[in-house]
Amino acid sequence: MNRHAAIAAVVLMPATGLSQTANEPLSAIDWLSQSVAITAPAPLPPVPRDEPSVASSIDVPQVTVTPLGASGFGAVGVLAPRISGLPADMWQASTGDDVTTLINAQAAPGLPALHGLLSALLLTRAEAPAGAELPVLVARIDKLLDLALLPQAQALIDTLDATRDPALFRRWFDVALLTGSEDDACRAMQASPSLAPTVSARVFCLARAGDWSAAALTVNTNAALGDLDADEELLLSRFLDPELFEGKGPMAAPDRISPLVFRLRGAIGEGLSTARLPLAFAYADLGDTVGLKTRLDAAERLAMHNALPAASLSNLYLARTPSASGGVWDRVDAFQEFHAATRIADRSAMVATLPAAWDAMQAIRAETLFATLYADDLDGLDDPKVSDIVRTVRHLGGQSAPGGSALIQALLSGDPADVPTRTTVEAAISAGFDGAPPSAQLDALLQNGRTGEALLRAIAIFDAGAAGDGPAITDALRVLRAAGQDKVARQAAIELLLLDRRT
Asked: Tell me, what's the pLDDT at 197?
């Protein structure tokens, strides 16, 4: 297999596998309330990037005509196409199976610009392939959950009536459990009990509503009918009547975790650490009732995976003077000292505190968040002791700064294709802006209106190529630009040059 075929195969590898080692967190497909298939999606056949796109014969497929909106969902999304820059019909020329498989297989991009593009693809208001409206919508929500973009997933769910379909309700319920906003979902479940993802969910909501007798009766009835296994029955019994189990020691760790099990364990005083759970569970540690150290750890974990806004990280870092030293407290202290210097525009203090603050941001891979917050403040800070940091932060923030490579300057404002390059990566980036079309098969996707597919493949190709495959980087950049995503292409190229995301 040549390297082009190898990269094409990487594009379609499932984002999560079925096996896991002792050092890997639980797979995201295992934590939803019976709403995600346990079997990993089968990858599409790799798209060859070096074969002619002309077929020797054609088959005329049968066409099923479905009126728009017949599914009752229509174009669903949070972002208007004019805001995201993505076409409203980017999925319609594809098949539902192709779209859902590609979305399910997409791994979290390492570069923030590509992560942002993937989020926009999932959130943009666009028509799904006819007849596949619900599967595509569910795949979009699941991928947002997989990426720990819970507020975005909630916003997408809020654009429709989640009680119209059990699959949508299950996702609403899980997001609500992790964000502490389950009361509305519980009220909807009480009004329509058939929506309950599990017996445990029904019991939980009955208890939330104060109907403890009905909750206990539900447990006893379903246990007698064999609808609850021994672990579920024990957990629910402890939840409903903890005094009966005083002195009996904690329960064993569960084999599988769901947001509901997580919340029930917390309610009985046997909470589970989120450090070894899927990333989305970290959101449960951001609540005001959680200790600051735990909240900071969760925020840093989310920030490291591009799942937390810059303002949210800043607000937590600035919430309180560090009460200890080492680890996260040292990062908080460094951040607070630099922030204080910027608020009073003390240039000498900024020079003195910037290196430690930058080291802290690099430790949690939050460099672009830092640039979002402070690139403007560093304008004109020309002390040679911090010139390299200032230049990097300014460039990551999309702003010019003295010095730096000619290619980065051209990526910020100019034509990167005309710039002399020094490395193979720079040459690959420059070639991506030469106006040539993408490889034949990827270009065919664009020409046939399958823009969403082409962009999903480009994200994965770029991510795989970042390890050193120049032609893959070039091809991905050409797809991005041909699809109208020139700004994303430029930012991703800058991040590739400035950030180390190889590990």
From this structure: 83
